[in-house]
Amino acid sequence: MMSARHYLEGTGLYHEEAHMGNPEIYQLRYFVETAKHERMSTASNELGISEQALSKAIKNLESQLGEELFVRSSKGLSLTEFGRFFLTRARIAVEAMQFVEDSPSDYTKKYRKTISLGLPASCLADHGGSLNPANLSALQKQYPDIRFVFVEATPAVIGQRLKEGTLQFGICADLDGRLLENFVLGEYLLVSLVHTDNPLSQKDSITLKDVTGGMIAVFSDNTVMTRFLKMHAVKASISPVQLSPVDPGELIMNKDTFMFMPQQHAYRVVKAPHVKILPLVDEQGAQMKVSLCLSWMNTLVLGEPELALAKHIACLYGKTFDRQPASPQTDLGH
After folding, report:
1. Whole-model pTM above 0.70?
2. For residue 13, what are the CA distances in angstroms to 5, 7, 65, 317?
3. Going from the N-terminus, what domains does the chain have, and what CATH number goes with each?
4. What's the confidence (pLDDT) of residue 222?
5. CA angle, corner 25, sides to 21 and 30, nearest 5?
């Protein structure tokens, strides 16, 4: 239980009354972040919440404390005298709670081996894919001293983290790299998303040459798809394709913008009535496709649990993982 202090006008005295509830740790985190940036908009962006939610949390905290924490002005926020005093204690509390919350990961790093699998969101069941964390429950029971985890990441980040050694395996389109091993999980046909106002939407299929007059929308970190499109544009003797990084909420907003993705994923997630899904074909009329691979560094020693994970993932995609255990003395020149 806390107490709130109220100034009694004309008396020079404060009246103190009981006030239920202690500050929540999230309120203290919000306060510390807001004090750091001195602007609600910046702090809310860093915290990943709306400015309205942050403002409400700070006001509730001030109400619980019975003191104002910030002086608000058109130039931003500045701490009150009490706010500066409280900030020191709030930081200690936040750091202490972070220390407590880090216990599982700290314990794992010290006492348990972790085998992590990086994969893009499109592979997860929540986003139209085939995998979910429950897929690892059988492995976890088989190897209770090892922690198996899915790590959601972009293809570019997966490739980088594999090289850094912070991921043991990754699932994405065939990654480049002399030091990477790739096991093909499947080949996925590609389709194009076309605005229904574009005359091309009346065709049965679409080629890269068809869309060279428009803009191809790509996620800025999808280096695999970008490389794939540029490579095939060169093969087809097409002038460099125009690639434009976009936000998911702005896809195919006009008739001259196109986007390519795996057919299976497109039919699961694309519901917009103004978008038509067409096969993406090469100059010979064959539908283009990309390989989805399970990748790992060839310096990774495939011990029993690593092999078990690889076999488990391959099985989920209807494949049989037949690779032999890697040797720690693998020749890096090949």
Report:
1. no
2. 10, 6, 18, 73
3. 19-101 (1.10.10.10), 107-185+291-316 (3.40.190.10), 190-290 (3.40.190.10)
4. 52
5. 110
Distance CA 70, CA 59 (A): 10
The dihedrals phi and psi of 221, each to the nearest 5 degrees, come to: -100, 5
**Helix (DSSP H) and strand (DSSP E) numbers for the chain:** 10, 13
CA distance 48 to 43: 9
Single-letter amino acid code for the residue at 325: P
Using the Cα atoms of residue 215, residue 218, residue 221 and residue 227 in order, give the sign of their dihedral: negative
Torsion angle, alpha carbons of 160, 163, 164, 167, to 10: 80
Give the whole-angstrom CA distance, residue 108 versus residue 116: 12
pLDDT tens digits for range 252-273: 566 777 778 778 777 776 777 8
H helices present in the chain, as ranges: 25-37, 40-47, 51-65, 81-101, 103-111, 137-142, 155-164, 223-235, 263-269, 304-316
Q: Integer distance in angstroms from the first to the last C-alpha of the chain?
A: 67
CA–CA distances in Å: residue 1 to residues 59, 154, 317: 18, 46, 55
DSSP 330: -
Q: How far apart are CA 83 and CA 90, in angstroms?
A: 10
